């Protein structure tokens, strides 16, 4: 490699976002040269790794934080519908790739797992009733069930009901057609496919600097970590999909669009069991309500996971704090990310989110017994010896300027693009991976507006609902759900 070499596309980071964008571009523009740089020895080792996330195909079927109760007691389905709509785009794209032979047998990365919500107490039950009623009117949520009958819940998943006080007021909702996704496997499979199409994937390569050249290209300075050899490469387009490492690289790029953005890292742990007697009694992803002051990503849930063909149960997350932005990065990530332009918003966020700080401190101080008590709220029969604690991936929540509030802590994802469309990056966390396809379509639309008309026929072939909303067309919604379920073999 020489410093004069210029490639069409550089994707920084070996996660699901880079893999999805590379997959799209390799088909829309097969003549473009694509280079992927990942600093670790293998792709999909940070947030996309199967054990660093919960694997929920986020479709708002069970996640209450996508449909909060308003102060007047009403609920709105708008955000839940939007999230589900985005997941259907991902499902359609994965289905297309399976049909084309670009992805192998779908059970390698996606499996059916009913999505449930489980709540206790009168107020929470009334809220869940309203939520289910509101979603029943939506074409993408027609199959949702609701019950307050503990025996019925026991039929759905025995672990929630076994040895629970029969007089306790509980309720649950269930959608049988939910999914569990091994995003680590999916990421590797997508990269394997784009490599077959001609892309080059360079692991153990860390991008340290990006600089805009006079001719409009970007010069990237890299270091091959095996041998510590410096390298450079020029790129016509750069995507920074480096997870928690994206903020620093976008700051180094000097684009004005990154000004005012900061990151707040949150780590986490899960309890995991592979005991076959326990695993056999639970086939669902069951979400509850987040504790007061807890971030949405800390909603407790008891999940079926299928990773590398093996089934396990996961419970958590238990939030923690470390200044690292990645599991394998440095303790200086947070302090080194502070700039004059984001210091004000970060201070404002700290002042306005004392509940979050208090929650994180309580989580950090929580004993194993206290963590087990949280698990037993879902599974009364849980025994300590059956469960091991594992550390999940780092999540970096977006902090940014706000004209009215000075600074806000944003949950979700944020696409940052340079004004000329030659660079883009992604900040934030959940629902992230589940909505990778629509997020990357957004990147394409922002960065290549002059090519979208040319690409549209291919995009419609890959994603039949492209440019439309399934939620406004019941027949199209039903047809799409049935078609993707058939291709992906998502049988109940």
UniProtKB/TrEMBL annotation:
GO terms for biological process: tricarboxylic acid cycle. The keyword Hydrolase does not apply. Its EC number is 1.1.5.4. It catalyses: (S)-malate + a quinone = a quinol + oxaloacetate. One of its GO terms (molecular function) is L-malate dehydrogenase (quinone) activity. The keyword rRNA-binding does not apply. Keywords: FAD, Flavoprotein, Oxidoreductase, Tricarboxylic acid cycle. It is an enzyme of class 1 (oxidoreductase). Its cofactor is FAD. SUPFAM superfamilies: FAD/NAD(P)-binding domain. This is Probable malate:quinone oxidoreductase. The gene is mqo.
């Amino acid at each position: 490699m020489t410093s004069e070499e210029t490639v069409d596309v550089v994707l920084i980071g070996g996660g699901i976002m880079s893999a999805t964008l590379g997959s799209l571009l390799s088909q829309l523009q097969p003549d473009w040269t694509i280079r992927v740089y990942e600093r670790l020895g293998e792709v999909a080792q940070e947030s996309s790794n199967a054990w660093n996330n919960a694997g929920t195909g986020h479709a708002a079927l069970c996640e209450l934080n996508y449909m909060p109760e308003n102060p007047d007691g009403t609920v709105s389905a708008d955000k839940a519908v939007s999230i589900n709509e985005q997941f259907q785009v991902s499902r359609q794209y994965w289905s297309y790739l399976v049909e084309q032979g670009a992805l192998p047998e779908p059970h390698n990365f996606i499996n059916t797992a009913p999505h449930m919500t489980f709540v206790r107490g009168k107020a929470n039950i009334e809220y869940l009733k309203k939520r289910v009623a509101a979603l029943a009117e939506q074409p993408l949520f027609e199959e949702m069930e609701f019950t307050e009958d503990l025996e019925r819940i026991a039929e759905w998943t025995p672990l929630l009901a076994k040895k629970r006080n029969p007089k306790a007021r509980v309720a649950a909702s269930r959608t049988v057609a939910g999914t569990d996704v091994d995003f680590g496997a999916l990421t590797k499979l997508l990269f394997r496919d784009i490599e077959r199409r001609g892309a080059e994937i360079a692991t153990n390569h860390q991008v340290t600097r990006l600089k805009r050249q006079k001719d409009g290209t970007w010069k990237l300075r890299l270091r091959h970590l095996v041998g510590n050899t410096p390298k450079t490469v020029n790129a016509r387009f750069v995507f920074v999909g480096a997870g928690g490492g994206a903020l620093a690289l976008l700051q180094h790029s000097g684009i004005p669009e990154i000004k005012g953005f900061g990151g707040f890292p949150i780590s986490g742990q899960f309890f995991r069991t592979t005991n076959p007697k326990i695993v056999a009694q639970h086939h669902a992803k069951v979400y509850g309500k987040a504790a007061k002051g807890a971030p949405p990503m800390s909603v407790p849930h008891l999940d079926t996971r299928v990773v590398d063909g093996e089934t396990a149960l996961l419970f958590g997350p238990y939030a923690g704090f470390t200044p690292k932005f990645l599991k394998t990065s440095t303790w200086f990530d947070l302090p080194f990310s502070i700039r004059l332009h984001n210091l004000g918003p970060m201070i404002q966020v700290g002042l306005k989110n004392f509940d979050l700080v208090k929650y994180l401190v309580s989580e950090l101080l929580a004993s194993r017994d206290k963590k087990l008590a949280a698990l037993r709220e879902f599974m009364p029969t849980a025994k300590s010896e059956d469960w091991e604690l594992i550390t999940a991936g780092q999540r970096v929540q977006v902090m940014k300027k706000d004209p009215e509030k000075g600074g806000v802590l944003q949950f979700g994802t944020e696409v940052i693009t340079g004004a000329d469309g030659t660079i883009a990056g992604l900040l934030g966390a959940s629902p992230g991976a589940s909505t990778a396809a629509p997020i990357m379509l957004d990147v394409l639309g922002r960065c290549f507006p002059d090519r979208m008309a040319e690409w549209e026929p291919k995009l419609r072939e890959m994603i039949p609902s492209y440019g439309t909303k399934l939620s406004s067309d019941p027949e199209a919604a039903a047809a799409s759900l049935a078609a993707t379920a058939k291709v992906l073999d998502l049988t109940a």
